C-alpha cells in the first residue's frame, strides 16, 4: 500500500460542498480478520488537491493508526478515502445539510435496488447530500464491501459517505432515517412463532441501538417481515423515540392494489388515488376499494363488478407476494425497493390535496376504534416534513369493518407471541390454524 497525492479532477470540485473541509470516507467496521491491515494516518490535502491512501487492492479495508491506537471509525478504501479541500462553494451552496441514512440487510436483494435510488437523489431530492450507513453481519461483510464498491463506481455526486458495519450501536449513530430490511427469511416448515421470535430479537436489539445512538427524531421504516410486529417490537425498545416515528412498509400492497384496479378499469395507474391498505402486511390485509377513487370517482361507480372487488381484487392483492415467489423463485425485491422510495417520498413531500397514502403506524389515538398499541396500516397525509397525520374521516362499512377486525385480531395474536420482546410480560403464542402471516411464504 502507498500514499499518493493527486490533483483534484475539475469535475470533482464542482459537486463538493466546501464550506468546510469534507471527508468522504467508507468507514468499515473491522471484524477481527481485518485488524492487521494498518496504515499511517491520511494526509491533509492542500486546496484543490486530493490526498488519498491507495491500496494495492482497492477492496481491502484500510485501518488508520493514531497514537498507536486503531481508530475503527477511520477505515476507508477507494474513493471514500479521499480528503477534499476545494473552493467550489458557489456551485453547491443551495444544497441542504447532509442527512445520515441507515439501511440494514444492506447486502440483501431489496437493498441492492434501494441503495442506488437513495444515492441518486430519487428519494430525498437532487439537492440533498446523504451518508449511507450500511448494517450487515459477519456473514455479509464481504458482500457489503462489494456493495460499497458498486456505490463508488456509480459516481453519485450526492453520496458523501458510506459507512459499513456489523454493530447497530455504531452504524445507527446520529442517523435521521433507518430503513430496516435485514431479517431471516421464513424457511420451509418453520413455525410462525419461531420466525416472530428470531426476527423479533433482531428488531428488539436494533430498537435499543436506535434509542441510544440515533437522532432523537429518527424516522424508522421496517421492511423485514413480519414487518408490523417487528416495527412494534422496535418501537417498544426505543422509548426515547416518538412511537409515531415508526412505520411498517405496506406501500407495496398499496401499489399492488392500485395496479389491479387500473387494470380492471382500463386506465393508467396514476388515475387511481385514495388507496388504503388497512391492517397487517399479511393475507389478512384489507385493500379498501370503498374509499379508493379512479379519476376522482369512487371505484364502485367505475367498476360495477362488486363481486370481483370483494373477492378477486382483494385476494389478488393479499396473495400477490406469494404468486410472485412462485414465478420468480424469490420474493419481490425491485418493486419492494420502489415502494420504499414511495413510502419515504410520501413523508418528505406534501400529500396532494384530497389524496392520502398507506403506511403501518402506531394505533394510539386512532379514530377508527382499532385497538391501541399495535402497528396497523391506515390512511395518512403528510405536510412533507417527515411527519404525518392520520386521515380521520374515511368511511368504513360493514364489509370493511369485519375484515379490518380480522387483521386486528391477527396482530393482537402476533403481539401476544412477542410479549417477551416488548416488555409486556410472558409470551403466549396462539396464532390459530390458518397461516396468514406472510404473503410471500412458500
Ligand atoms: N414489507 C414488505 O412489503 C416486504 C418485506 N419483505 C421482507 O424484507 C426482508 C428482506 O428481503 P430481501 O432483501 O429480499 O432478503 P435477502 O435474503 O436478500 O436479504 C435479507 C438480509 O437479511 C439479513 N439477515 C438478518 N438476519 C438474518 C438471519 N438470521 N438469517 C439470514 N439472513 C438474515 C441478511 O443480511 P446480513 O447477513 O447482513 O444480516 C440478508 O442479507 C424479508 O424479511 C422479506 O420477507 C420482502 C418483500 C416485501
Ligand atoms: O414474504 C415476503 O418476503 C414477500 C412479501 O412480504 C411480499 O411480497 O409482500
Indicate the proportion of strand residues: 15-25%
Structural class: alpha/beta
Average pLDDT confidence is 82
The number of helices is 14
Which strand order do you get reading across the main beta sheet? Answer: 3-11-10-9-12-13-14
The set of bound ligands, ions and cofactors reads: NADPH dihydro-nicotinamide-adenine-dinucleotide phosphate, oxaloacetate ion
Number of strands: 22
- End-to-end gap: 49 Å
The helix content, as a percent range, equals 25-40%
Shape: globular
- Rg is 23 Å
Oligomer: single chain
* Unreliable residue stretches: 1-75
Topology at a glance:
Blueprint: E1 2-7, H1 10-13, E2 22-23, E3 26-28, E4 38-39, E5 49-54, E6 62-66, E7 69-76, E8 83-84, H2 89-92, E9 99-104, H3 109-120, E10 130-135, H4 141-153, E11 159-165, H5 168-171, E12 177-180, H6 192-213, E13 219-222, H7 227-236, E14 246-248, H8 251-265, E15 272-273, E16 276-278, E17 286-288, E18 293-294, E19 297-298, H9 299-302, H10 306-318, H11 320-328, H12 334-348, E20 357-362, E21 375-381, E22 389-390, H13 398-417, H14 419-422
Parallel strand pairs: 3-11, 4-6, 9-10, 9-12, 10-11, 12-13, 13-14
Antiparallel strand pairs: 1-5, 2-8, 6-7, 15-18, 16-17, 18-19, 20-21, 21-22
Helix pairs in contact: 3-12, 6-7, 8-10
The structure holds NADPH dihydro-nicotinamide-adenine-dinucleotide phosphate and oxaloacetate ion.
Residues 225, 252, 321, 324, 331-332, 438-441 line the site of oxaloacetate ion (OAA).
